[in-house]
Amino acid sequence: DVKVTQSSRYLVKRTGEKVFLECVQDMDHENMFWYRQDPGLGLRLIYFSYDVKMKEKGDIPEGYSVSREKKERFSLILESASTNQTSMYLCASRGSTDTQYFGPGTRLTVL
Amino acid sequence: QKEVEQDPGPLSVPEGAIVSLNCTYSNSAFQYFMWYRQYSRKGPELLMYTYSSGNKEDGRFTAQVDKSSKYISLFIRDSQPSDSATYLCAAGSQGNLIFGKGTKLSVKP
Known about the structure:
By secondary structure, chain A is mostly beta strands.
């Protein structure tokens, strides 16, 4: 079974803090994704990566950056957290098939 | 126009009912279609996927795709309270996947 893990289930941060969200997959997948999910807006793609050190902007990259130093790990960085970044953050990975496998999610609250 | 449209519900049915969840899509280039189930405060889990028009069955679940009308459906037979969740449809091509916003389903005992 594909396993995607995320570093925290719940996180509370203050406005202006730098926030790191970590995602690890154990299936040697090339492609990894970061989404945020908000009520009424569905899943929105923030960034994705198709290889180590490679990244592509998704639909809503503003205010975020990513890092992929190792194949199994994809990090999402909020350089200066703001209240409108309060959301559920979901990481996913995809291998040679077209299916994406999701982690359990991190519910981030920015106060 | 959104590429994948899905009625958000909520949908409430009695236990044992047949549930029909539906999506439409606009991009005729989409080649693969998926359904995910998401329990409250959890990540989406892949339920079914298909690459062609027609039906695909897995236990109580049947995924149906009609490429001519760009319509995706998921049927749940003999629904159970444990089926209560949000169901996300998705469609894509060339490595991309576009999600619907999800339909919240509640199955009442």
